[in-house]
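pinned: reference chain
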Amino acid sequence: MNIFTQTSIQIALTRSLGSRLEVVKSLNDVRSEPSYEETLRISSDVNTACRANSILLQSFRLSSCSNDQSRPTAFQIKLLDLLTRRFLHSLHLPFAYKAKSNPLYHFSRKVCVESALALLTYPVSSPTSHCQDEDYVRLTVLGEGFFKSVFVLANRTICLELISQLEEDSPPFGSVSVNSLAHKELYRAIEDSIDLAKRRIEAGETNVKGHIFFSGILGQIDALQAGTSPEQGFLDGAKKRMEICYDLINKLMEQSNFQPLQPSNGEPDWGIQSGDDELGSEFLMQDSGLDFEIPDTWSILDWEGRF
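pinned: its structure tokens
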């Protein structure tokens, strides 16, 4: 029966439980790597569950015989999609990274980008669902665990995809422009994710690496457009955000009655020893293995646990 109840969301999640467990088993099997055919089969099941959930909940919201109390909220719809779609995104990630060198996996690249964009998209506001939209936004700002990591993974996918597209579309000499609708959509998603990371810091998070790192990536993208050094673009973008993070952390310390940092000579103390002429990439992230040339060396394992 198409009647929305207090357990409808749980029932919808239960229907996709088997497929989601298959994803977990496939990704965590250390003894063997899943075949691409098996991945596509599981993907089809999860994707079917996502579509079925969307159709079902939208039918509840559009039902003429339902009142506001018996309809799913925008928050419930988006949360259900997040809890299901994140498995689809993770399932295809290992193969999506191989797509640049092997066109056989292009479908995984496409699925990862589409699912990442869906995960990073806030619910559409309306006069009757504004508070529910705010509930979801609050979850993205204050949530921990996978409520945080899922957006980091999605943003990483978008960053790599946009850089790959710009490199593929760039002429032998000169700059490349973010003019197509697809490019603009990806660029806007990265900007929104950086803003989200800033809001998390303002809300009390003290780990600023994700905010700084993705700001550096945006600087690298801007450098690709301008035809300048991508590495320098990364450093400039990251350093600019470090100054913003410095002010935010100082403000948090003051609000928490901690003694704020006291910079010498009026400049933020980044911990650089005297004699250092520039801000190196080692200082920016304190993690090895970053390659400004991007693509193949930036695997899911390289970024694990960094943010």
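why pinned: DSSP finds twelve helices and no strands in the chain. The CA atoms of residues 146 and 152 lie 9 Å apart.
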